[in-house]
Amino acid sequence: MSVVLWLGVFVLLLAVLIVLDKRFTIPFSVRVFTSLILGAMFGLSLFFFAESSVSQEVRRWTALVGNGYVDLLRMLIIPLVPTSIIAGLLRLSDTGELKKLGVRTIGLFLFTATIAGIIGLVIGSLFSVGSGMVVGELAKRDANTITNLFAQFRAFIPSNPVRSAADMQMIPLVVFSVLLGVAAITVKTKQPDKIKSIEALLEGFLAIVMQLTMMVLSLTPYGVLGLTSYWLSSSGLSALLQLGLFVVAVITACLLHMALVYGGLVAATAKINPLKFFRAASPALLLAFSSRSSLGSLTMTISTMKSRLKVSDRVANFVGPLGAVMNMDACGGIFPAMVAIFAANAFGIDLTLSQYVLIVVVSIFASLGSAAVPMGATAFTVITLTTVGLPVEAVGLVAGVDFLVDMFRTMTNVAGDLTTSVVVANSLGEFDKKAFDEQDLRTELAFA
Q: The domain at 3-438 falls in which architecture?
């Protein structure tokens, strides 16, 4: 089967998605899930039945579609993040209200991160991940020390916000945006007349950015098809077969964290059905699953908060961007803890109580500082292993299945952002429970 025929099949699948969009009233989340299935079928077929040279050429075109979509999403980040944070802060009436929103949001981030680290340790131990693993020849990695951790947090200080934006260093940019927003709300509290023109400018610019966001998000099914086809056509199922237990353990930990922690929080605080919550959150969760990027999913996450979770604009615009770079329960909490257990078992090392505690502590910091991009968990996993005194070579053992577990990690991270938005909004009286309960979730999102 030639390159032309394979590309013809791929184009046909794109056409099927277009028909589903234009001719049938199929919910957006269903179309995204359909594209996931079609992409998996095409990618695995390419992996098993196409010649190497043919597969490589076809993958270039699937990557163009998939990565092109991700690039469009990333295009939105720099104008969206600072604008939405500052505009969201300016919607607060005074500094007292700011304290309530900020403290509750960060406090919830820290709470769920702690639980995530503990779940990673418990599930990893129950599954005995890494036991019996062959640790012969491994790719050596540069050693890291606790100094690297402090250096990383020093880098969070926004010494040059322009350079941070150019280099896509999101945490310094978020810190700068929050500080600027705090200064703006302080001026608004004392001299409200001086801030009105800035408020109008920000609101207008945010409206333009959100319209551009809707245009890009409408391309989601096609981007997901390209991304899924590309990954599975290159890796197949070999990685999953070799490290299946580790994959199952990570997936179990992520799903358990989502069901017990996030589901429990929305049920206990907002008094809503967790199943309906996850159904309403499905568009953002599916995009996070396929794109493997909290930042790449940010625009969808904010839209889902507003249109399906019925959270107020100011809470969504504050929690969404902040959570995308500071709420990494799976990438910074569950995964480093799980790899630590994997490393200890694989290399025959008995962990002490102090090491278990240190793993959780470092995981908390990691969850607040992991880069919100695909594979962003790796850096803090290496730091976690080094801090606890475990071989960093263990990262090389699990690298082959990282793209599989990264899907579930990212979905868990975004689920945490969505949960936080509902819990915080409910505590501030800005969650419309009646509208949430009465909505028909079979309808499209506002942009679809």
A: Orthogonal Bundle (1.10)
